[in-house]
Amino acid sequence: MILVAGSANLDFVVRAHHIPAPGETVLGRDFQTFPGGKGANQAVASARAGGAVTHMLLGLGQDAFATPLENSLQSAGVHMHIVRTPGHPTGTAFICVSDDAENAITVAPGANAELRPDHLPSLAGFTHLLLQLETPLDTVTAYARAARAQGVKVVLNAAPARALPPELLAHIDVLVVNEGELAVVSGHEGSIADCLSRVAVRTVVVTLGHRGSCARHNGAFALQSAFPISPVDTTGAGDTFCGSLVAALSQGQPLVDALRFASATSAIACTRWGAQSSIPETTEVEALLASTPPTSTEEAQALRTFCGLN
Predict the structure, then answer these.
(1) CATH superfamily placement of domain 2-8+37-90+110-307
(2) Is 63 annotated as a binding residue?
(3) Which one of 6, 44, 206, 283 has the fewest CB atoms closer than 10 angstroms to its CB?
């Protein structure tokens, strides 16, 4: 059983030819709103794609923006522990998606910033606590410390990128970052392997976009090539990866199998619009896994070279 403690945002998404540069105005086309927020996206991925019993601690305002977020989590089977914050609106995110499926995101945290250490529910029965950095850092640290003290595995998706205090890293079992976040957390801009060697966490997973992912566990490396897709919208792909990865780990899958499952789940999500709306069902992930051969020797070698492991 998994507890996700983190953010929930209503995403305002506009499609445009390209993401505007500073001072530039771009005429967009399609506009839609989607349930989002790193925490909520990961909870939906854990429950819907990963098939894990999933709870979520989240902060919401007393406004209309909260309703679609609650409906999305409920429809995915996520059990909610909601902290209402009068005077603070539900979190929002403003997202521009370009025609090549890249995105630029600005987040207004709202109620997400009001989660406090004493809001953490009982951890009895939970195997994993999944955290991100869209809620206050002192709260994230307090949750990690409490979980570690009770024997609950702590997984941190260190996004948005920021330097992490040693006190927080000391309570993390699995750290999930993308390439840019790894550089920030490690304080180094060398190869993936060099950066990983500087992070004092037993298991670190790095997502590498269209290349795949790389993990270091107890000094050994595992590599997973990306599944071949034609992306439509990459919003929430990293969150989908995180949620489904933790779901797989909570069900006893070895890290290498969990990486493949998470990669397949996020690949499907990239072929659809939105964050939570793009997350597939477990049966869809299983079908993609069954129809796609494992990472070939050539793919693995290319990924090793990119990561600086040769």
Answers:
(1) Ribokinase (3.40.1190.20)
(2) no
(3) 283
Nearest to 176 by CA among 193, 189, 159: 159
Please write down the HEC assignment for all residues of 109-134: CHHHHHCCHHHCCCCCCCCEEEECCC
Q: Cα(54)–Cα(101) distance, rounded to whole angstroms?
A: 29
Find out whether 208 is annotated in a ligand binding site.
yes
Is 243 known as a binding-site position?
no
Binding site annotation covers 230?
no
Task: Name the residues annotated as catalytic.
Answer: 239
d(CA 133, CA 161): 8
Q: Is the pTM of this model over 0.85?
A: yes
Domain ranges of the chain: 2-8+37-90+110-307
CB atoms within 10 A of CB 219: 8
pLDDT in tens, 217-262: 998 999 999 999 888 888 889 999 999 999 999 999 999 999 999 9
